[in-house]
Amino acid sequence: MRIPLMAGLTKILLPLLLLLSVAAASSPSSDAEAVSRFQEYLRIDTAQPTPDYAAAVAFLRDQAAAVGLEARTLEFAAGKPLLLLRWPGRRPSLPSILLNSHTDVVPSEPKKWEHAPLSATLDEASGRIYARGSQDMKCVGMQYLEAIRRLRNAGFVPDRNIYVIFVPDEEIGGHEGVELFVASKEFKELNVGLVLDEGLASPREEYRVFYAERSPWWLTIKAKGAPGHGAKLYDGSAMENLMKSVEALRRFRTAQFDLVKSEEKAEGDVVSVNFAYLKAGTPTPTV
Ligand SMILES: [Zn+2]
After folding, report:
1. Checking CA distances to 19, which of 89, 105, 157, 250 falls within 20 to 30 Å?
2. Mean pLDDT per 10-residue interval, the chain, length 287 residues
């Protein structure tokens, strides 16, 4: 989602990270319960293209009720519920914090998996949980809820309103999910100052924070040229013309990639260009 970060980022973010580290204080039994709640979420089949959003939202509403959060299900597109949770702050006039995660996951090919993708099998020895969505990004959504659960149990009340949203359709562009939400009056009413969105799962206590957004840009190149017989050599054919553009893009791609390889820039700081699809030519002797 593309919401500009407000000034004073560190003023909001640092206390939040402190909060999350306080929330990390736990007991073995509460950890085990958190893990089994996570497994339960993973077992709900929210894989595109037919995600069971109703089951996911029902599960999350139960979790929110157990944690003591106010819940609203918003449906901007039919059959695509967005769950909005609210943890009221002491000073609700301050800009709020919005914690985002998506409920859908990408499809899987079960035959290529050691454990069924919806089994959420826990390997006791390594502590690993195998499931589609375990990283992208059901783990983050559950971490938000577990952190809030522990903070509330410890009697903590935040200064600002904290909102947690679980959005549909992120894996297919979010057009009927967060895109409609950010244009809604419900979103404006939240008075959002800071959003924490998708990042990387961390197996340790460190939490990496990114503060950049990459925008996709689809470029279609249509090459035209002189037609002719394949037995002749001539200038200006469509494929020759296309190759000039491809070569220019390839050089740009290499230059960007070199910056990453030489560690001059991070992966998120360059423009990544990838050729996705080529449709060209005719399967006849005519060029
Ligand atoms: Zn994701």
Report:
1. 105
2. 43 56 65 95 98 98 97 98 98 98 97 96 93 95 96 96 98 96 98 90 80 84 88 88 94 97 92 89 75
Per-residue pLDDT at 2:
38
Buried residues in 264-277 as b, exposed as e (16+ CB within 10 A): eeeeeebeeeeeee
Token pair for 271: 């423009």
Residues marked active site are found at 104, 170
Q: Which residues lie below 8 Å from residue 238, measured CB to CB, with a gap of 6+?
A: 223, 224, 225, 280, 287
Question: Would the annotation count 175 as a binding residue?
Answer: no
6 contacts: CB under 8 Å, gap ≥ 6? 12, 95, 193, 194
- What does the angle CA 24 – CA 29 – CA 31 come to, to the nearest 5 degrees? 35
Ligand 1 centroid – CA 103 distance (Å): 9
Q: Does 171 carry a binding-site annotation?
A: yes
How confident is the prediction for the chain on average, in pLDDT? 89
Tens digits of per-residue pLDDT, 29-65? 788 999 999 999 999 999 999 999 999 999 999 999 9
Going from N- to C-terminal start, the domains of the chain cover: 9-196, 218-287
